[in-house]
Amino acid sequence: MPVLIDNGHVTCPHCSEDIEVKQQRVGATYTKTWKNVPARCLNIVQWWIHSYPYDEMTKQEALTNYRFNNNITTGSFFARISELLGLEILNVTREVRVNDSYIKKKTLVSPRYSLNISKAQRVLAVKGDLKKL
Questions:
Q1: Position 15 in a domain
Q2: Are 41 and 87 in contact (CB under 8 A)?
Q3: N or C, which terminus of the chain has less Cβ within 10 Å?
Q4: Is 78 exposed, middle or buried (0-12, 13-18, 19+ CB in 10 A)?
Q5: Domain of 115, in residue numbers
Q6: Exposed, middle or buried: residue 98 (CB in 10 Å: 0-12, 13-18, 19+)?
Q7: Which residues are CB-neighbours of 17 under 8 A, at least 6 positions away?
Q8: Mutual orientation of helices 74-86 and 59-67 as an angle, nearest 10°?
Q9: CA–CA separation, 59 vs 90, rounded Å?
Q10: Do 126 and 132 meet the contact criterion of CB atoms below 8 Å apart?
């Protein structure tokens, strides 16, 4: 039975108990074994550092901006974002509930992604060779 994750918690539909949900926030863990950053990731890093180095974006905003000059599927782009998180080239904020005075409710604010500029510059300088970092 599907349940709604609300600010890191779910309510059991049977007993109404509040349960904390532990969500992975470190990105693709398999990247820890990589020796080189693939070109598909380096392209996104180059785009981000040249176009939006200091901006925070949701995944959807980043995809929309990246697609302006590149052809990529949603799933492929989101996978690259996860890999860049795993490599600690991107940072992410937690999703949070905020009061929305317009609709008089708490609304969910999506996680926002930002570039770890110093790591991105180092990775680009060594052309993705993680052994040289």
A1: no
A2: yes
A3: N
A4: middle
A5: 24-132
A6: exposed
A7: 11
A8: 120
A9: 11
A10: yes
pLDDT at 110: 81
d(CA 34, CA 131): 9
* Straight-line distance from the first to the last Cα atom of the chain, in angstroms, rounded to the nearest whole number: 46
State residue 102's pLDDT score. 65
Q: Which amino acid is at 92?
A: V
H-type helices in the chain, by residue range?
39-51, 59-67, 74-86, 117-125
CATH at 70:
1.10.10.10
The count of domains in the chain is 1
For the whole model, what pTM was predicted? 0.76
Which residues lie across from 105 on neighbouring strands? 100
Domain-located, residue 97: yes
pLDDT tens string, the chain, 133 residues long: the values are 677 777 677 888 888 888 877 655 678 999 999 999 999 999 999 999 999 999 999 999 999 999 998 999 999 999 999 999 999 999 998 766 666 666 666 656 788 999 999 999 999 999 999 999 9
Decide if 11 is inside a domain. Answer: no
Q: Are 58 and 112 in contact (CB under 8 A)?
A: yes
Identify the residue whose tokens are 């070109």. Answer: 39
